[in-house]
Structures are given as structure tokens and as C-alpha cells.
Amino acid sequence: MSPSSPLIIALDYPSLHAALCMADQLDPNRCRVKVGKELFTRSGPAVLEALHGRGFEVFLDLKFHDIPNTVAGAVQAAAEQGVWMVNLHASGGRRMMEAARERLERERLSTYLIAVTVLTSMDESELGAIGIDESPAAHVERLARLTQESGLHGVVCSAREASRLKSLCGDDFLKVTPGIRPASVAHGDQRRVETPRDAMASGSSYLVVGRPVTQAEDPMAALAAIEAELETR
Ligand SMILES: O=C(O)c1cc(=O)[nH]c(=O)n1[C@@H]1O[C@H](COP(=O)(O)O)[C@@H](O)[C@H]1O
């Protein structure tokens, strides 16, 4: 059964063993998990098998960005391994996104396909330095529109943009929001952050939480505090 919780815990660990130690403390009925570049590069598909075997729905976060044919093949490979969700970069463009979506349709694979808009670690000055002269919010909007027109299920954005995207793209278009920081937790490399409660209030569909839980002195207490914060919304 799919968990009703919006929480996705980012298993950003340097080994399969470390990731599974955390997964074994988590309840697949209460959260989903995310496998990212570091863990997948080290452990490969074995980590997906291990997490699926424990009953978790897995978001494979490899943020594909390449020519359409290559990305379509990579998305198919991810979906064939049974992941719940996979992502690519919206900045790869419409043809790339359409090719990936069409491949999933052709193969009758039901994995959620979403696109990263503007990384939550980026602010306006960093966007300017790569030649994008609009605010993060405006650029997120532009890429979210393109993503929706390309037929994907939703986007990764910061929770700060979620409410605008909700009115622009509708309730069913997924807003997956990393950069979640409970009030007392350091922002680290994240720039466009929101607390768990405010992220849900602004229309996020799913909250991606990594270090506030995984690097906490007591990860399970940190997770329980976030769950409690969400319950009092
Ligand atoms: O696609 C993602 O998951 C992602 C997109 C984005 O814009 N920002 C972002 O932080 N992420 C991922 O979300 C997780 C956030 O982790 P913490 O900052 O530790 O909570 C990391 O695994 C990032 O790779």
C-alpha cells in the first residue's frame, strides 16, 4: 500500500550499507525514499532491489540531461527496475522530455516522470551567472509550463514556487519540493528553502528531506518532529 505521507527521505549516503541502516529504521508505510547520484553510482541497481524488497516506493533521482534518445533509454531502464518516480532536467528541452514520456507510454511503464526546474541550491545571482536573466520564480514558471506541455507528471521546484505552480498548472501536476528545513536546522548549500509546514501549506505534493533527518544526532527523533509539525497543519 502506498504511504499517505508526503515525505520522501533522501538516502544520500556513500555506501549501500549506510543507506540500508537508515532504511531499516524507516517504515515503508510512513514514507518513501530517494536514491540519488552518490548512492546509485556506488551501489548501482542493487540498492533499488534492496529497498523494493523492504517494501519502499523509490524515487530514483539521477536528473537525466542528455540528447532525447539517450534520456529516453535511461528513463526506460529506470522504470523497468520498478521505481516509483524518476526525474530529468527540464532545461534539456521539450524534445528530450517528450521522448522520455513517449518511451514510457510505448513500453506501458507507469513510473512518475518529473522534471527539475531550477535547483533549490540556486539563487538569482547564480542564475544570472549562467545567462538566465529572470528571477528563479519566473524561470521555474517557464520550465514548469514547458514540462506540462511535454506531458510529464510534474516538477521538482522549491516550495516557495509551489503555490504559484498550483494555480498555473493545477492540483494534479506534481510539485516535489526539496530544500525543506525545519526552523532550527542549518540551510547548508540550499538557498530556496521552506519549513515542512509552510511547504505543505503552499501546495507541495511531496517533501524531499535529507540532512535534517539523515545528519541529525537522532534521525528518528528528527523525523518524528517533522511528522508532528505536519500533523499540526
Ligand atoms: O531532484 C532533487 O531531488 C533535488 C532537486 C533540487 O532542486 N534540489 C535538491 O536538493 N534535490 C535533492 O534533494 C535532496 C535534498 O537534501 P537535503 O538538502 O539534505 O535535505 C538532495 O538529495 C538533492 O540532491
Automatic annotation (TrEMBL):
Assigned EC number: 4.1.1.23
Pathway: Pyrimidine metabolism; UMP biosynthesis via de novo pathway; UMP from orotate: step 2/2
GO cellular component term of the entry, any: cytosol
GO molecular function terms attached to this record: orotidine-5'-phosphate decarboxylase activity
SUPFAM superfamilies: Ribulose-phoshate binding barrel
Ligand binding (substrate): 12, 34, 61-70, 120, 181, 190, 210-211
Keywords: Decarboxylase, Lyase, Pyrimidine biosynthesis
Top-tier EC class: lyase
Catalytic activity: orotidine 5'-phosphate + H(+) = UMP + CO2
InterPro entries referenced in this protein's UniProt entry, alphabetically: Aldolase_TIM, OMPdecase, OMPdecase_AS, OMPdecase_bac, OMPdeCOase_dom, RibuloseP-bd_barrel
GO process annotations (BP): 'de novo' pyrimidine nucleobase biosynthetic process; 'de novo' UMP biosynthetic process
CDD domains listed in its UniProt record: OMP_decarboxylase_like
Cross-referenced Pfam families: OMPdecase
Orotidine 5'-phosphate decarboxylase domain mapped to chain residues: 6-226
Keyword Hydrolase assigned: no
Residue ranges of the TM segments: none
Active site per UniProt: 61 (for ompdecase activity), 63 (proton donor), 63 (for ompdecase activity), 66 (for ompdecase activity)
Lyase among keywords: yes
Functional description taken from the UniProt entry: Catalyzes the decarboxylation of orotidine 5'-monophosphate (OMP) to uridine 5'-monophosphate (UMP).
Family: Belongs to the OMP decarboxylase family. Type 1 subfamily.
Subunit field text: Homodimer.
PANTHER family reported for this sequence: OROTIDINE 5'-PHOSPHATE DECARBOXYLASE
Protein name: Orotidine 5'-phosphate decarboxylase
Organism: Aidingimonas halophila
Gene name for this UniProt entry: pyrF
